[in-house]
Structure formats: structure tokens, C-alpha cells
């Protein structure tokens, strides 16, 4: 049984350098959503006013997640909620298309990178 236990996840915290690197990756992934969602909305015929109102929270979330003065957990929660919010906005912009729902299935494995067991 001890031999098997060494292959199982132990939980706990990541070393700070690994955690910071993963948070930077997640922040970049979140930042890339803004231009993509703007383009998708524009191609789907949404007005700039509609897109501005719908995506106003995303730059605010990016400001929060890049603040080094905030606790790591706060920044990670904001990234997680913002990525899930991007999924919701994408589904809305795509008029509920089934394919847009797959964005959730892309976001969930990304969130696992934080290793917050």
C-alpha cells in the first residue's frame, strides 16, 4: 500500500515560484478572453455599447488579479470566477449554442492548475 500512496496527490500548497508561474499563465489566459469576446460579439452583430456593458467587469477583474498586494487566494478566486464568467458571456453571445458550452470544459482543467484541494 505504501508503494501506491507515493503516486497519489498529496495536496497542500505549491511552492511560491510554481504558484506564481501558474497564476501568470491563468492571468494571460483571462486577458486573452477580452479581445476574443469582443471579436465574437462583433461578428455576431452585437453593438459596441452592448459589448462594453457586457464586458465591463473583465478589465476590472484583470486589475484585481494583477495586484500583488492582495492575498494569493483572493486573486485566484477572482481568476476562477472571471474565467467562468467568460464562459457565460460566450454562451450568451453565441445565443446559447451547444458548442459554446464546451468553453466550461476548457476552463475547468485550467482551474485545476491552481491545485487548491
UniProtKB/TrEMBL annotation:
Key words of the record: Membrane, Transmembrane, Transmembrane helix
TM segments? 25-42, 48-65, 77-94
Q: What is this protein called?
A: Uncharacterized protein
Task: Give the originating organism.
Answer: Egicoccus halophilus
What is this organism's lineage? Bacteria, Bacillati, Actinomycetota, Nitriliruptoria, Egicoccales
